[in-house]
């Protein structure tokens, strides 16, 4: 899930929770939660994932070169 998708899901979840609904729909997907506590937990998890993704440094990509020889 990309950062934009996580933000979209979080905003849909918050909007549904604010309206008192137990299901949230975003990007053609629909999720139904059993209780408000489950929705709160899902929102907290998304917030943690978004915060981690935004604060994570971008690591440089490594290149691995392979060589072979007959050993002669």
Overview of the structural elements:
This protein has 72 residues and is mainly alpha-helical. The mean pLDDT is 89. The longest helix has 20 residues. The radius of gyration is 20 Å and the shape is elongated. Strands 1-2 form a two-stranded antiparallel sheet. Helices cover 51% and strands 11% of the residues. A hairpin with a 2-residue loop joins strand 1 and strand 2. It has one domain. The N and C termini lie far apart (50 Å).
How do the helices and strands line up, and which of them pair or pack?
Blueprint: H1 3-19, E1 23-26, E2 29-32, H2 36-55
Antiparallel strand pairs: 1-2
Helix pairs in contact: 1-2
What are the secondary-structure elements, in order, as H or E?
HEEH
Distance between the termini: 50 Å
User: Could you give a short account of the major beta sheet?
Assistant: 2 strands, antiparallel
The fraction of residues assigned to DSSP E strands is 5-15%
Q: Based on DSSP secondary structure assignment, what is the total number of beta strands?
A: 2
Instruction: Report the principal-axis shape.
Output: elongated
- In DSSP terms (H or I, runs of 4 or more residues), the helix count works out at 2
Oligomer: single chain
Q: Helix- and strand-based class?
A: mainly alpha
Write down the domain tally. 1
| Radius of gyration using CA atoms only | 20 Å
Helix content: 40-55%
Q: Kindly state the mean pLDDT as a whole number?
A: 89
Unreliable stretches (pLDDT < 50, length at least 5) are none
Order of strands across the main sheet: 1-2
């Amino acid at each position: 899930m990309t950062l934009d998708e996580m933000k979209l899901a979080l905003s849909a979840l918050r909007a549904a929770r604010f309206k008192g609904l137990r299901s949230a729909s975003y990007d053609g997907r629909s999720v139904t939660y059993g209780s408000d506590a489950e929705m709160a937990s899902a929102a907290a998890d998304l917030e943690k994932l978004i915060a981690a993704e935004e604060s994570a440094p971008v690591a440089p990509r490594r290149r691995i070169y392979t060589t072979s020889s007959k050993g002669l």
